[in-house]
Each structure stands twice: as C-alpha cells, then as structure tokens.
Amino acid sequence: MDKAHIAQKAPFAIEAQEGQKYAWCSCGLSARQPYCDGSHKGTDFKPVTGKYEKSGTVWLCGCKQTGNGPFCDGSHKTLND
C-alpha cells in the first residue's frame, strides 16, 4: 500500500479537550476513524500522535492526503470522484 486509503472526502469535526492525547489514523483503514485502531499493521503507515493544544473544534483530515496531518489542509477538494 503506497498511498493512504481515502476514509472520507471531508474532514472530521472533533471537539478536542486541551491536553487530550490522540492517535490519528494516517493509513485510512481504521474502523475508528479518524483515530487509529491498529489496522496499519503490515503497511508502512504509522499513526500520528500528539496532544490537543487547546479545547474547541478541530478539523482532522478524513481523506488522509493532507500535508499537515492530522489536520485538514483542504486536500479533499482536489480528489477525483
């Protein structure tokens, strides 16, 4: 698998809590989108981990093509149907 699977062609709106840890799925195979469930095992993909810096709505990439993972950068707008 060279390219991530497109989980959805829109971002996920998440109500983040400051300091909350996350593991964002970068492969697109997780059944717990947008978060990792370990489905990347056997691929070259790894989850992107971190902590939310502040509370509020964040937009996590759903198409997995972002250049700013885990956050949406609008890449979904350029995908073919």
Folded structure, characterized:
The protein has 81 residues and is mostly beta strands. 0% of the residues lie in helices and 22% in strands. It has one domain. It contains no helices and four strands. The strands form two sheets. It has a two-stranded antiparallel sheet with strand order 1-4. The protein has a two-stranded antiparallel ribbon with strand order 2-3.
Structure described in brief:
The chain is mostly beta strands and 81 residues long. The chain is 0% helix and 22% strand.
Strand segment count? 4
Strand % is: 15-25%
Output the radius of gyration. 12 Å
Q: How would the global form be characterised?
A: globular
Distance between the termini: 20 Å
The major pleated sheet works out as: 2 strands, antiparallel
Number of helices: 0
Number of separate structural domains: 1
Order of helices and strands, N to C? EEEE
Low-confidence spans: pLDDT under 50, at least 5 residues? none
Mean of all residue-level pLDDT scores: 96
